Amino acid sequence: MKLESIKPTHLWDSSPYLFSQVVKVNAPSGLVFISGQVSIDPAGAVVGEGDIDAQLVQVFSNLRQAVKAAGGEIQNIASLTVYLKDIKHHRNYLKAIANEFGGHCPSETLVQVVALGLPELLVEIQAIAVL
Description:
By secondary structure, this protein is α+β, with helices and mostly antiparallel strands. 23% of the residues lie in helices and 28% in strands. The protein has helices at 52-69, 90-101, and strands spanning 3-6, 22-25, 31-37, 77-84, 107-112, 123-130. A four-stranded mixed β-sheet has the order 3-6-4-5. A two-stranded antiparallel sheet has the order 1-2. Strand 4, helix 2 (90-101) and strand 5 (107-112) form a beta-alpha-beta unit.
């Protein structure tokens, strides 16, 4: 399985924002749909109440565990849907994704939402991986 980031010449360059406009799968493979992950640890406790950076660490840990359970790793993630309660946390998210993904840039949709499943949650990330 190989994921290829494509930069269409007629779309704006999204690379400074650490995502790809288009990701192509270049092999027969399976798709893994990962439900929105929030900052809840394995014991069911919310991690980092009021702290976006702590919540992002837990969310990406949960994403790594989810894709690992399906037989992959974080670089297998082809697409993300990111829900932020406050768009001011976008820079925190960019730092977190740079740390977690290195040079790998999945496609992405990022939106600000009024609320998530619990009032103390600040971010939720859904993913699609290709194995």
